[in-house]
Amino acid sequence: MDPETRVRVIEHTWITMPDGCSLSARIWLPEGAEQNPVPAILEYIPYRKNDHKALRDAEIHGFFAAHGYAGVRVDLRGSGDSDGVLRDEYLQQELDDGLEILRWIADQPWCSGKVGLFGLSWGGFNGLQLAALQPPELGAVISVCSSDDRYADDVHYMGGCLLTDNLSWASTMFGFNSCPPDPRVVGDRWREMWLERLEDSGLWLHQWLEHQRRDDYWKHASVCEDYSAIEVPVMAVSGWADGYSNTVFRLLEHLQVPRAGLVGPWGHKYPHMGGPGPTIDFLGECVRWWDHWLKGIDRGVDSDPMARLWLHDARSPLVPEITGEWIAEEHWPSPNIHYGEFELAKGRLVSGNGRTDEAEALTIRSPLSVGLFAGKWCSYAETTDLPSDQRLEDGGALVFDTDPLEADLDLLGDTVLELEISADRPVAQVAARLSDVDPDDRATRVTFGIRNLAHRDGHDDPQPLEPGRRYRTRMRLNEVAQRFRRGHRIRLAISSSYWPLAWPAPEPARLTLHLEGCRLHLPERRAPADTPVPRDLGEPRQAPTPAHTLLAPAHREWKVEHNLATNEVALDVTNNDPVLHLHDNDLVFGRDVRERYSYRSDVYDTVRGEVVHTRHFRRGDWSARTVTRTVLTSTRDAFLIRATLDAYDGDVRVFAKSWDETVPRDCL
Fold this sequence. Notes:
The chain is α+β, with helices and mostly antiparallel strands. It has three domains: 222 residues, Alpha/Beta hydrolase fold, catalytic domain (Rossmann fold), CATH 3.40.50; 189 residues, Jelly Rolls, CATH 2.60.120; 117 residues. Helices cover 16% and strands 38% of the residues. It has a ten-stranded mixed beta sheet, with helices on both faces. Strands 26, 27, 28, 29, 30, 31, 32, 33 and 34 form a nine-stranded antiparallel beta sheet that branches. The longest helix is centred in the first third of the chain and has 15 residues. The radius of gyration is 25 Å and the shape is globular. It starts with 6 loop residues before the first strand and ends with a strand.
């Protein structure tokens, strides 16, 4: 960052919507922007600019401002210090507000009239969604860790299976929605605004469970419904440990605008902040993108390869060290990818037509323990939530290995598994994992996929299986970039459950694989010697972090327990944020999270997920605290939700509410 560039911060301003609702914004301006207007970068999210994201926002938007852009951070309606109530993700109201914000920004004296949309996760989602509405003020988008398909590839469902991240994420937003606005910003009406949110924001988990198939609810704001609606340049970014890496490849393939893809060795974080692998000068990359598309300055963006990707090298599943290298693909899909076919034989993956047991069938009915060491569907860049040694899972799965490889093999793209399969229940689940097995037999998961077989013909109209009938189905595993070293083996493991990453089927099912109809297609990368190598992506840079004091460090922990006396098996997750004191606004705040996923005696009706969030705020004599608790269980016929919300003004409980909901299972 240029040390001579000065930045002015407008700590708070109101943006008024046509219905009178006022949204709270913080703005970072380059000095002199009122006399020499600049493009603006908007990040529009519900994560509380005044506390939860205050430090991160200043580091990012201060950097943009120091490089000639107005950084604008707006709290969604009903979040942070903005008026109103937030009732769900990506509602039309949110998008309408977003369009109005873009108009407001473009009309400001410090703005040149051009705006870029920027954001991670929620902000990445609505960046794509707003772009599809074609606002004239919008010049370009950088979307990080987002999805183009809200049903098939988001935190809620995967392959027609319910992700337990659905419960975890619903509980996160339950906690966020319970938080009060800041009295220092909104004044005496803070308590009235708070009570309105507590009463009306609702139980999002209930709503999401009422839509178990890909209906109009999920199609709304899924930009895959019409990629051609996006008419501005898009940079799509994710990490291999993130839950959203597949989106990057679909956007590169289907968008018809200038586009760039970046997937690195990170989790669900911005690439200058994320782990577990090496970070980069991501904000510098953003400024190059903005300079090109918002200012018309040639920064060489046109000469960048379409995709820059981190190729993982062999690594231990027990050590967080990440090794690998950056590779480039000029186009996606790439002509450098050639699919190799493997047949499934008893215990083996056989290249070509080497199988001799043509008519053999193998069966599996996995214990619920398969998945306890799978890690989180979407890693938040903590080594605690990454998958462990897959040998801990393989005992409950059908396992197929190649012979030791005679040469290094690079995979890049999506693995496709063709199955000829039958089940003894009308609803059944299949999970497939691809692992790198080193000469010491340690198994590192490389990619995975899960499929609800009732969704074998699509997610719009699932149909029960006919027990015993053979079905042919294709399932795609997540995109992958992995180098398998000479002497290593490639392992495919198939199980009938994957708990607690995915909620189990209504009852245990026995799967039968009819091997003559099973194939594994691996995306082998054979790059010519003259394939370009990406330029150095640099070391992370950011604006200075505002003054603060760390009062208590973050605490992250995952622990698997098996109580042999009660035969209860549980995964306990601790995910406590640091407790911080922000000096500028004299605010102390923190968040404690406990999650527990359990079952007893391998009985499906005992499967249980529980998440408790505690959030607390303090300034002088003022303090507020909320506690949200959500419990999800199931029977063969229904999901059962029990939830409570308690809010405290000082030591006095000022609000309490409980929910007891039943949602019928719909082929799930």
